[in-house]
Amino acid sequence: xxxxxxxxxEYSISNVHSRDCPGTYPGRxxxxxxxxxxxxxxxxxVSLEDDALVFDMxxxxxxxxxxxxxxxxAEVPTMAVEKVFVHNNTxxxxxxxxxxxxxxxxxxxxxxxxxxxxQRTEEGDKWPSSTPEHMLEFVLKVRCTHAPAPGGAGxxxxxxxxxxxxxxxSGDMEWIPIGDQAxxxxxxxxxxxxxxxAKLRPGQEIHVRMVCVKGVGKDHAKFSPVATASYxxxxxxxxxxxxxxxxxxxxxxxxxxxxIKVVGNGDSRRAEVGDTRKDSCSxxxxxxxDLKNCVQLSRVRNHxxxxxxxxxxxxxxx
Length: 318
Prior knowledge:
Layout lengths: L4 E4 L4 E2 L19 H7 L1 E8 L2 E7 L3 H13 L3 E12 L5 H9 L3 E2 L26 E9 L1 E2 L16 E2 L2 E3 L4 E2 L5 H4 L4 E2 L5 E4 L5 E11 L14 E10 L6 H8 L6 E4 L6 E4 L21 E15 L9
Antiparallel strand pairs: 1-2, 1-18, 3-4, 4-18, 5-14, 6-12, 7-11, 7-14, 8-9, 10-13, 15-18, 16-17
């Protein structure tokens, strides 16, 4: 087993500890060196979309990869609802719970266009007035009524749609530009328009004003830009001997689709390693007595696959 691979055995996982530190191997200097780190470390972007980013970090230790993960969770700024001013709320949801739910709705807005709100020096300081460089403002005003009946007779509507505005969703939030924001900003609003906020019945109403500010996840989870920030080691699969015929078909079924390819036809078909990134490392192959000695399962210790779905609806390509 190579020293850079983590071995996945039938009953254990071995070679898991990092050994790139001074004194691990006689006659070899493994002290950390900045120039060597620059030479070995690289980042490769695999896919970049509005709501997801997948990239590889190669040539680093797990502690550094985890530091990047924590930075994404806690120190990348976003915009989120900070203050909720309730003008009217006759729904069944209490004001505090409603404000909390509004605060967790992801807001689509580029935080690089805003400044952090000024710090209040004392607890009694007033909330600063709305400024276009610090804040976004939304209004939510929804009132539930009976749906008109077909033909205009009565007010009960149909059995399928007896009410109007019975569900309050994030798409009901209306952006109110401050100053010249209408000219400088575009496509501002909730990331998804179908997030359920509350349910109403005729006569009930919600009317609130929301103020969004720039913040980071270490202050509150609502500012965290990623749904989950995770990484995993790149799987490495080596065939130790030729696997042909019916055994090749069974070997391919032991892995996720695309990990092992079967090439050729008839009895001459053979197994080959395909895209190892798709492997879930289930070790299913080790349950087969005639196959478990044909393959070596491992993971590359310093190659991290990082997958980060975004909450905020945009991913910077800067």
